[in-house]
Amino acid sequence: MKMLYITHGFPPVRHSGTFRAESFVRYLPEFGIEPLVFCAADDCDVLTYEHGTDTDEYPGVLRLPWKPRNLGVRLPAWHRMFLRLPLGATLANRYARHVVAAVLSERVQKWLCGQRVRAILASGPPPEAVVIGERLSCLTGLPLVADLRDPWTYYPYAKYRHWVDFAFERSFERKVLSRCRIVIANNPTAKTLLTDEVGLSTDKVVVLPNGYDELDFSACDGTESHSPDRFRIVYTGLLHTSLEKRARLGAVKRALALDYQPVRVDANARSPLHFLRAMESLLDRRPDMRGSVAIVFVGPLSADDRRALTTFRYPECLSILGPVPHQRAIRECCGADLCLLLQAGMWIGREPKSLCVPGKLFDYLRSGTDIIAPLQEGDATDLIRRLNAGRAMDPYDTRAMASYVEERFDRWKAQRGERPAREAVASLFDRRKISRQLANIILNAIGEGDPRDICDTWPSAA
Questions:
Q1: Which residues on neighbouring strands pair with residue 325, listed in sequence order?
Q2: Residue 117: which H helix or E strand, with range?
Q3: 3-state secondary structure of 409
Q4: What pLDDT, on the 0 to 100 scale, is given for residue 47?
Q5: From CA 441, how far away is CA 460, in angstroms rounded?
Q6: Is the pTM of this model over 0.85?
């Protein structure tokens, strides 16, 4: 059977959201589903990963611009004033979404003519993908499945002009997602958010996590990057250091419920600063480690990230590789002695609520390398403990970080730099297996599957 897959980013574009999409398109045909991909032709406004070739392409891909054509045009004063009012920008954005969805839906319908597509899978963020999917579902009668890689209205960095805007957008989210046959969340906390806060029924939402692709590990035997005379601590992917102080005007706006953020974010919990402070205290106390420790950062760095790294008192222990192909990052993880996992802190109201699980966690798990995870408590820390894959601690507990690194270093030294063999602990998160679960979800959406085949693919939910 054929399925329309709507996703904004798709290879050769590379960012954290495209790995999941690419794997689904690669593996779903093994389970009887042929995806036809509709994606954006616009440039993605994100930091992208390096990749080995610019010629990656798949058959059955339609690329169209998603952005309104007047984006960036200087607006008249009355229009700018309207956008500053509560609901002003929200109403304008909703109108733009409907216009774009209507135009694109018509063109996609023509593209699909004669293809005998039987289902629609829409992947967000951005939520426009789901809105386009809902429009097409209404026009064609095809069942819609929404795959939310991150939350919609409760996206951690989402900001609304006023809390009224947030409530209005959340009602729109509830309306759109209620029309889906099945809604996919990628971790248990995100599922709870959809049922308790957005108001979806529990039988409509299922957990299908991110994962790793075994093909990325096919050329990795776990030793390519391993150096027997250096204890290597590796971090891959994006950091998030913010050295700017909040403006006073921001406090006034928050007091007036302007620039409302439903999820309060501590971005600096994803900064390397606190881990580096822990390493400084350890290296101060253990001078014998200074020539034997290498802290490796793999991935793009912002200006603030680079400034944070330059403050480290032992630069001889730092190695900054910058953006590299994903397979190279995988080899660094496989050859490491510790993998460092960081994530921003999040709160809804006063309740700490870690809504996102870092995608790199699944690569770390598959590598078999122990993980040091200075993270807010949540699904990621729970998973690390359940799989005995390393140690989690508070993101500001520098003493606990230093203690675990020292413990692992002393064990490494006692083994004379030999890295003990260790079985991967994450076969549950192989994207081929996750694609099989997705195939079951699609078949159930069209009424041909067994509901018993749909289950949350997460150990803590078992």
A1: 50
A2: strand 117-124
A3: helix
A4: 40
A5: 20
A6: yes
Give residue-wise pLDDT tens across range 119-174.
Answer: 999 999 989 999 999 999 999 999 999 999 999 999 998 888 888 889 999 999 99
User: Pick from 330, 332, 331: which is nearest to 319 by CA?
Assistant: 332
Q: In the numeric block, which tokens belong to residue 42?
A: 């616009």
CB 317 within 8 A of CB 294: yes
What is the greatest pairwise CA distance in the chain? 71
State the pLDDT at residue 462: 42
Alpha carbon separation from 256 to 91, 161, 164, 218, 337 (Å, rounded): 20, 11, 12, 54, 49
CA dist 120 and 2 (Å) reads 9
Q: Quick one: DSSP state of residue 362? A: H
Residue 394: the pLDDT is: 96
Pairing of the two strands 117-124 and 144-148: parallel
Angle 163-178/88-112 helices, nearest 10 degrees?
Answer: 20
Length of the chain: 462
Count Cβ atoms within 10 A of the Cβ of residue 259 and give its class: 0-12 exposed, 13-18 middle, 19 or more buried. Answer: middle
Give the chain's radius of gyration (CA, Å): 23
289 close to 283: Cβ distance less than 8 angstroms:
yes
At residue 395, the pLDDT reads: 95
Tokens encoding 399: 């003493």
Helix axes 128-140, 163-178, angle to 10 degrees: 40
The whole-angstrom separation of Cα 458 and Cα 456 is 6
CA distances from 208 to 124, 223, 457 (A): 14, 31, 6
Cα separation of 345 and 325, whole Å?
28
Instruction: State residue 117 phi and psi, 5-degree precision.
Output: -70, 140
pLDDT in tens, 402-439: 999 999 999 999 987 566 555 556 678 999 999 999 99
Q: Which residues contact 206 (CB under 8 A, 6 or more apart)?
A: 182, 183, 184, 185, 191, 441, 454, 455, 456
User: ∠ CA 9-353-248 to the nearest 5 degrees?
Assistant: 85
Residues of the chain falling short of pLDDT 50: 45-55, 71, 461-462
* Whole-number Å distance between alpha carbons of 340 and 367: 13
Distance CA 324, CA 209 (A): 25
Nearest to 184 by CA among 200, 197, 171: 200
